[in-house]
Amino acid sequence: MAYFKNIGNIAYEGKGSDNPLAFKHYNPQEIVLGKPMEEHLRFAVAYWHTFTASGADPFGVGTAVRGWDSANEMDQAKMRVEANFEFLSKIGIPYYCFHDRDIAPEGSSLAETNKNLDVIVDLLEEGMKASGAKLLWNTANMFTNPRFVHGAGTTSNADVYAYAGAQLKKSLEIGKRLGAENYVFWGGREGYETLLNTDMALELDNLARLFHMAIAYSKEIGFGAQFLIEPKPKEPTKHQYDFDAATTIAFLQKYDLKDYFKLNLEANHATLAGHTFEHEIRVAAINGMLGSLDANQGDLLLGWDTDEFPTDLFSTTLTMYEVLKAGGLGKGGVNFDAKVRRGSFEDEDLFLAHIAGMDTYAWGLKAAAKLIEENVIDGFVDNRYRSFKEGIGAEIVSGRATLASLEQYALQNNVIKNESGRLERIKLQLNEIIYSV
Ligand code: XUL
Ligand code: CO
To answer: Is the pLDDT of residue 300 over 90?
Structure first.
C-alpha cells in the first residue's frame, strides 16, 4: 500500500530550482574531495521520529495525521514497515535506524514481546531485500517502560538488570539478522537524580559489565557491527553517566572497553553539555573514537533536547569540516535524530524536513571541502603553532625538554612576542566560503 501518494521521487534540481520537493544541494553522485556525496554522508532516517512518533508533548496528545494510524498496534506496526520503505525510496536515503520498541509493540510478557518483534523483523528483512535499504544501526529502548524507572544497566534492582540483559540479547540478534552496520547504546535512564539514594560506583561497574556481556554475546553469534555509545549530559535523568565525549571515553578506558566502541555524537546533546557539535567530534576524532552522527539542532533559547532538523549552515559546515579532517565516518553515517515540529503534522512535512536537513548537510559538506581545498583553517593553524617546529618548540614536542632546559632558555629569552589569533578575519572568510558554494 502507498502512503505518500501525492509525492514522487525527490530529485536533485540544483540551486536555481524553486520546487520545494527537490534538492538544491544534495546531489548524491556529485564528487566532493574524490568521493560521491552519498558516500560522505550516508544518511539515515530515524524510525522513531518519522514513523512512530505522533507529535505528542507533555501538554497535549499527538497532532500527526498518518496513513498508518490504526487502533490495532500490530496492524499499525506492519503499516509502518511499508511506510518506511516507501519513504526511504522516494527521498533517496539509503539507511534507517530503530529502537526495538519503535518497530513492534510490547506484549504482556517478554516472550510475547519477542514474538511481536519476530513478526516485524521478518517484514523488515523482506523489505530490505526488495528495496536495497540498509540498517545503519539498531538499539534497545531501555528507558520508556516503567520497569526502567531506576535505570537498566544502572538500576538498583537486579531483576530489572536481568530483563535489560535479555532485551539487549534479543536486540543484538535482530541487528545480526538485519545486517546492522552499527549498534548504539544510548543510556536513556543510565544516570541519577540524587546521590542521596545512589551507589554510583556499583552502577558504573554494572553498566560496564553489561557492555562486556554484549561484546561477548556478539562474538558468540558473529555480529560484527561497530558498537557506539551516544553521550548526552541530562534528560531524562538529571545527571546522565555518558555526559559527553570526554566523559564517555574516560569510562571506556577505565573498564577496558575502549577498543570495542566508538561514539555516536548528537548535535543537540553536545549543546546541552555546553559544547559545540564540532567540539564533540574533535574530542572523539583525536582519540580515534569518531563513529557516527545523530544530526539535528537544538533551540538555544530552550534548555532541552528539541531534536530539530538541522538548518544551520554554519554548524553543518564546521561539522563536516571535522568529519573530513577525521577521514570520514567509516561504518557510521548521518542519522536524522530529528522530528518535525508539532505544528508540521502533514506527511509532506516529513519530506520537506528531510530535504532541509539533507540540503543543509550537503551545503556544509561542499563548504567544508572548500575550506580544506583553499587551506583556510589549516593555513592559519599551522602558522599559529609554527614556534613548535624548530628551536625550543621542537625540543618540547620531541619530548627532550626538561624544566631545567626550559628555564635555561627562558632566562636568556628576555622578549616574548605573541601574535593575534585573527579570529574575526577567519570568521568572515568562513561566511564568504559558506555563501559561495
Ligand atoms: C535521545 C536520543 C536517542 C538515541 C537512541 O535523546 O538521542 O533517540 O539516539 O536511543
Ligand atoms: Co540520538
So the answer is: no
Whether residue 293 has pLDDT greater than 90:
yes
Give the span between the Cα atoms of 93 and 307, in whole angstroms.
19
Whether pLDDT at 213 is above 90: yes
Q: How far apart, in whole angstroms, are the C-alpha atoms of residue 41 and residue 91?
A: 14
> Ligand 1, residues 294, 308, 339: which to mutate, most atoms within 8 A of Cβ?
294
Just list the catalytic residues: 99, 102
Question: 21-57, pLDDT tens digit by residue?
Answer: 999 999 999 999 999 999 999 999 999 999 999 999 9
Q: Is the dihedral of CA 334, 137, 225, 236 positive or negative?
A: positive
Please give the number of the atom of ligand 1 that sits closest to the Cα of 143.
Answer: 10
Tens of pLDDT, residues 161-200: 999 999 999 999 999 999 999 999 999 999 999 999 999 9
User: What is the rounded distance in angstroms from the CA atom of residue 53 to the CA atom of residue 342?
Assistant: 10
Q: Is 18 annotated as a binding residue?
A: no
Does a cis peptide bond (omega within 30 degrees of 0) precede residue 236?
yes
Residues in CB range of 182: below 8 A, 6 or more apart: 136, 137, 225, 226, 227, 228, 264, 291, 292, 331, 332
CB 198 within 8 A of CB 192: yes
Indicate whether residue 174 lines ligand 1 (CB < 6 A): no
pLDDT band with cut points at 50, 70 and 90 for residue 17: very high
Residue 80 has pLDDT above 90, yes or no: yes
Residue nearest to atom 8 of ligand 1 (CA): 337
